[in-house]
Design a protein that fits this description.
COMT-like; WH-like_DNA-bd_sf; seven-stranded mixed β-sheet; EC 2.1.1.4; COMT_C; Arc Repressor Mutant, subunit A; alpha/beta; 349 residues; transferase; Rossmann fold; 48% helix
């Protein structure tokens, strides 16, 4: 290998190995409340005022703030040439995605990932050795349902809302769904994707089917605008209760939570509940058919293995799964980050 190529490969390996350091800078900024503190301030803040606001050491805080600046989370203004002291403010992206006051807040989801950093991610070698037994050791026995592991705490609900809130418009436009008049988002949490669907398809009736505890939160927190008024929330458990009538069901980041037997149970129930010609839209972090990418799907595949015993799937695997329960006309689109999309139909009359 040529010297230049060897250096490039060494750097690539080190960047992967050191990636956790970048994550910890972001996780720590969130855990200490730095982004929300700056969001609440009318003016840029010094390291001293920020350290006082979060109750931390001034020098250590300054070093963290500079690291956040280097990673593009903050801007540093008017740095003194001798002391290098300055004032800090949020970037536009950080204000949009890392503050809890923002409607496009990803902070809860990133915080959820931070909570998984020590365990289960540190247990990945054990999970690889043990296989499916690992998730059982973590308490997700095969007989349990999502109700057993779901939480309606603000942080968890915010984590579940984050990606569909930010990327849901791409899902709504992945296929032309105008022919469907009654769209039901199964396990749709507080409705972030449903609101995007309502905006994209104003003539359709949009509903969310989720656990009663989730529906209570969703109704209390729903937006008071036209899209908010058009989305209805229906309580129930998709394993145990009949599905609401619909001609298109949506499952966004649902199937990856479950082992194959439960996935088949969900898909069979959806197929049986649809009218002839009805559709199913699947939204997941989709692997390529050769399983060599994309990176985002690999990360979430391992996360599901660690946390729930589930997995991410390729388009070919979805084709086989959906066909096995009777779906036809399976169309796969993998082109949008972070999700791939599958549209399948029950046999037409």
């Amino acid at each position: 290998m040529a010297a230049g190529g060897a250096e490039h490969e060494a750097r690539r390996i080190l960047e992967i190995a050191e990636g956790f350091m970048k994550s910890q800078v972001l996780f720590t900024g969130l855990k200490l409340g730095i982004f929300d503190l700056l969001d609440a301030s009318a003016d840029p803040m010094t390291a001293v005022s920020i350290s006082e606001g979060i109750g931390a050491d001034t020098d250590a805080t300054k070093r963290l703030l500079d690291a956040c600046t280097g990673l593009g989370f903050l801007r540093k203004l008017n740095a003194d040439n001798e002391t290098e002291d300055g004032k800090y403010q949020l970037t536009e992206a950080s204000r949009m995605f890392l503050t809890t006051s923002s409607p496009t807040n990803l902070a809860d989801w990133v915080g959820h990932l931070a909570n998984l950093y020590g365990s289960p991610w540190a247990d990945l070698p054990m999970a690889i050795r043990e296989g499916p037994a690992f998730s059982t050791h973590r308490g997700l026995e095969r007989g349990k349902t999502f109700k057993d592991i779901y939480s309606t705490t603000k942080g968890f609900m915010g984590a579940m809302e984050g990606l569909p809130t930010v990327f849901g418009a791409k899902t709504a436009s992945a296929f032309n769904l105008t022919e469907f008049q009654n769209i039901c988002d199964i396990g749709g949490c507080t409705g972030p994707l449903a609101y995007h669907l309502a905006a994209a398809y104003p003539k359709a009736s949009i509903s969310v089917f989720d656990l009663p505890e989730v529906v209570k939160v969703a109704v209390a927190r729903g937006p008071d605008d036209e899209q908010g008024q058009r989305v209805s929330f229906l309580p129930g458990d998709f394993f145990h209760d009949p599905l609401p009538p619909a001609d298109l069901y949506v499952v966004c980041r649902i199937l990856h939570d479950w082992t194959e037997d439960k996935v088949l149970t969900i898909l069979t129930k959806i197929h049986d509940s649809l009218p002839p010609g009805g559709g199913l839209l699947v939204v997941e972090h989709m692997l390529g058919d050769d399983k060599t990418g994309p990176e985002v799907a690999h990360k979430y595949d391992l996360l599901m293995m660690l946390c729930t015993g589930g997995r991410q799937r390729s388009g070919r695997e979805f084709q086989r799964l959906l066909s096995s329960v009777g779906f036809q006309e399976v169309t796969i689109r993998r082109t949008t980050y972070p999700f791939g999309h599958v549209l399948a139909r029950k046999q037409r009359v």
